[in-house]
Automatic annotation (TrEMBL):
It is found in: Membrane. Coiled coil: none annotated. This is Sulfate transporter 3.1. InterPro entries: SLC26A/SulP_dom, SLC26A/SulP_fam, STAS_dom, STAS_dom_sf. GO terms for biological process: transmembrane transport. Keywords: Membrane, Transmembrane, Transmembrane helix, Transport. The chain crosses the membrane at residues 49-67, 79-99, 111-139. It comes from Prunus yedoensis var. nudiflora. It comes from the Eukaryota. One of its GO terms (cellular component) is membrane. Gene3D superfamilies: STAS domain (3.30.750.24). Belongs to the SLC26A/SulP transporter (TC 2.A.53) family.
């Protein structure tokens, strides 16, 4: 119990006032958020009184827990208050060695914030945590995931072979998944990754076919640098005697590819809705009629996915 340690003089009173204003704004914001779930009305004055009373007894609002647990009345707060009081007074030693399982990068963010607060100030710790989190986001944007896909047994589903060990490579076809939008920040990295995959798998895909499928399901957008990257990838696969095929590009990607005439330059007639359809088309076309990568090809009569989409624009 620490009631006797309270000091109502400056500068402690000023600090307490500032903290109270921040806590009040936060509490009212949380209350309004939960009121939207049940179409309730929030009275700011009652919220101020409730937050003040809760802070007097040293408790924090657990609105999220109560809502998810299905609590309906204020009696849940009384039960929670008693449970928290007994836990803080008698049960805390039992939780001393409880492990905290977090991501490695989360540990870096937390330790940076902790060190900034201990050796600097609260503002420094907050700035360090935010800055490291922003750097993490930028790294994910600059180095997106690229995976080789394989076919799951007895299905038409294609997934990452590293995540699904039972997924098998399709003979003669290299299926690559791009897991992020394509911008100037990551085009060089993606170009290098695609080139490396083609170099590593060239012997395998040339032994039974000649095609590279890019699964673009997760590519929400691309810029001019991304368009240039596709042109370079097309030149690369042409030099290797391969066929470039696209699977499931989004509407924004298709619009930009159409306006930049990238479709005619790279994948005319070789765009499909799913990876399974692309694999079936490659197996049929590349095994029945060997394409000449040095010349533009006429699209097959039965492959109208790309052209039907363009006609509706």
């Amino acid at each position: 119990m620490s009631f006797g340690d309270l000091v109502f003089v400056s500068p402690y009173l000023t600090t307490a006032f500032k903290t109270g204003v921040i806590a009040l704004a936060e509490g009212i914001a949380v209350g309004r958020s939960f009121s939207m779930f049940k179409n309730d009305h929030i009275d700011g004055n009652k919220e101020m009184i409730a937050i003040g009373m809760m802070n007097i007894v040293g408790l924090f609002s657990r609105s999220a827990v109560n809502y998810n647990a299905g609590c309906k009345t204020a009696m849940s707060d009384a039960v929670m208050a008693i449970a928290v009081m007994f836990t803080l007074l008698f049960l805390t030693p039992l939780f001393h060695y409880t492990p905290l399982v977090v991501d490695t990068f989360d540990i870096v963010v937390c330790m940076s914030a902790y060190i900034g607060v201990v050796f600097g100030s609260l503002e420094i710790g907050l700035v360090l945590a935010v800055a490291i989190s922003v750097i993490r986001v930028l790294l994910f944007v600059a180095r997106p995931g690229t995976f080789v896909q394989g076919n799951l047994p007895n299905s038409m589903v294609y997934r990452n072979v590293e995540q699904y060990p039972n997924a098998s490579n399709v003979p003669g076809i290299l299926i690559l998944e791009i897991d992020a939008p394509i911008y100037s920040a990551n085009t060089n990295y993606l170009r290098e990754r695609i080139t490396r995959w083609i170099n590593d798998e060239e012997d395998r895909i040339k032994s039974a076919g000649e095609s590279v499928i890019l699964d673009m399901t997760a590519v929400g957008n691309l810029d001019t640098s991304g368009i240039s990257m596709f042109e370079e990838v097309k030149r690369l696969v042409d030099r290797r005697g391969l066929q470039l095929v696209l699977a499931n590009p989004g509407s924004e990607v298709m619009k930009k590819m159409n306006k930049s005439e990238l479709i005619e330059k790279t994948c005319q007639g070789w765009i499909y809705l799913t990876v399974a359809e692309a694999v079936a088309a490659c197996n049929f076309m590349l095994h029945s009629t060997k394409p000449n990568p040095g010349k533009d090809q006429e699209p097959a009569a039965w492959n109208n996915v790309c052209w039907l989409w363009l006609a509706t624009m």
